[in-house]
Amino acid sequence: MSAHSTPPALLWGVRRHLAAPQAEIVAIQRQPFPGGLSGSRFEYWRLRLRKAGVASSLAVVYKQGRVAKGAFLQGAAQREALAYAHLPGRLPLTLPTVVALSAPTGELWMLPFPPAKPATHWRAAWDEEDVRAVIADLAKLHAAFWNQTETPETWPWLLQPTQADALRLVEDGRAGLERIQAEGWFDASLTPDRVAKLLALARDPSPLLEALHAGPMTLLHGDAGFQNIAITQDGRMRIWFDWQLVAWGPPALDWVTFLHPWAYPEAQPPLTFPTMTTLYLEELARRGCEIAPDAFQRQLDAALLWRWIIQWGPLLGRYRERLRPEIKARLDHAFARLHWPALPRIP
User: What mean pLDDT value characterizes the chain?
Assistant: First the structure.
């Protein structure tokens, strides 16, 4: 890429990052690398710069805001860019250093992360101390915005999965479940009885929403699994990234996204799910945000099924061409550990 085709947002961001308003980008070398499952594209960019007649270089990671179709990820790339524009310095977490962004296109340019402990979508090389630190981070985030009802007014671009955005999200899930039922796409995991119960909840989600709204509301990361947290090799820094689903909602919705990847067959959680949940509630209580365990369990059951309906229902019913068999097998394993036990506990 030549300097003539440099994105204006990148040039402006580099000048701001370097505090050098006359800096120029004279050339860009790009190298793609594998990204996540949402459809976004990632590349390493090496920028050749000239500042006050002196040549230098800067390496950045480029994320192109293209995400998979469906209501669940609608506007996600733009939302993430807005999060990086407004949230750094406002959150009690470490975020990536974003050099430049374009909110209209959802493009990001950020500094590479320091060497981190291995983590994929399916497994993380974390020890018990890492898990405890991440749980404390999540509780710290939730406590900082606990029932601060002005938050969605301050940042109206936040996803509101149980309020303003609930109808369009659940309609996508209902359509997916109706197709599963109509086509007879049943298997050992998606049995006719489970699909029928989920479809009934998608058509009348009031039992789920009433349970979720019976507790507090807060700022949510939206996808707080280990695949979106980089822990440096010395364990001292945790970088929270991928804010595409940043939201305002019940804290249980974030907690289910923390638990979910630990339920994959390759994952080896150093602590049990009940122990991790107890630690999370204790960390909240230490910060003056108490939830009774029984009440949180009801919210957790509702959050598991609400998230299933709005995320996995569309994928399995409307967009199943994106779902490779090996990923479906991993999902079925997680559903068996987390979601299916919750189904009979919902009236």
Answer: 96
pTM recorded for the entire structure: 0.96
Question: pLDDT tens across 65-85, in order?
Answer: 766 789 999 999 999 999 999
Long-range contacts of the stretch 18-25 (C-beta < 8 A, 24+): 18/49, 18/51, 18/58, 20/51, 20/52, 22/51, 22/52, 23/49, 23/50, 23/51, 24/49, 24/50, 24/51, 25/49
The long-range contacts involving 191-195, CB below 8 angstroms and separated by at least 24 positions, are: 194/340, 194/343
CA distances from 173 to 39, 204, 216 (A): 20, 12, 25
Per residue, what are the HEC states of the chain?
CEHHHCCHHHHHHHHHHHCCCCCEEEEEEEEEECCCCCCCEEEEEEEEEEECCEEEEEEEEEEECCCCCCHHHCCHHHHHHHHHHHCCCCCCCECCCEEEEECCCCEEEECCCCCECCECCCCECCCHHHHHHHHHHHHHHHHHCCCCCCHHHHCCCCECCCCCCHHHHHHHHHHHHHHHHHHCCCCCCCCHHHHHHHHHHHHCCHHHHHHHHCCCCEEECCCCCHHHEEEECCCCCEEECCCCCCEEECHHHHHHHHHHHHHCCCCCCCCCHHHHHHHHHHHHHHCCCCCCHHHHHHHHHHHHHHHHHHHHHHHHHCCHHHCCHHHHHHHHHHHHHHHHHHHHHCC
What the chain holds in terms of domains, given with CATH numbers, is 3-110 (3.30.200), 128-345 (3.90.1200.10)
pLDDT of residue 1: 57
**Residue position matching structure tokens 């979508």:** 121
Cβ(99)–Cβ(45) below 8 Å: no
Residues of the chain with pLDDT under 70: 1-4, 36-38, 66-67
Tell me how far CA of residue 275 lies from CA of 109, 133, 265, 269, in angstroms: 38, 14, 19, 11
Q: How far apart are CA 142 and CA 316, in angstroms?
A: 31
